Amino acid sequence: MSIVKRVILIFAVLISCVGCDQTTKSIAQSSLPEAEPLPYLGDTVRLQLVHNSGAFLSLGDSLPRAWRHAVFIVGVGGLLLGILAYAILSKTERPSVVLALALLVAGGVGNLLDRIAYDGYVVDFINVGIGPVRTGVFNVADIAITVGALILIAAALRQRQHVC
User: Fold this and answer.
1) pTM for this one?
2) What average pLDDT score do residues 90-110 get?
3) How do 38-40 and 133-134 pair as beta strands?
């Protein structure tokens, strides 16, 4: 895959995912309650506004504010720049891996923009599950990160099968 095609793929994913993420978060902030979740599809999907100052499942939420800033803004920002540079400059990666890396960066950028704009927290608003078996509250950026990670795992498993 040429560098021009990689850059086009990466920026198409970035623009579409970050745009969708920020739009849905804006709608969630203006429309959803913080106190009581709104159930949909027989309570399989719940929408509720949550401000998460930690990471996945509020991990790191109890860290002092300065540490959270260092880890979740400075550290994550540097990591995202590194992944982006690798995705653009790596000549050996297949298109599926470039797509996966672009999704990871897009999701990371969506959440990073929240942290910068909202004094360190991320806007989450989606919860899915059946009865008491439920996910944590998440957002569109988290979906992009999860899909990117799953594509990377699938690519690694495929690569491993070809080696064995």
Assistant:
1) 0.90
2) 94
3) unpaired
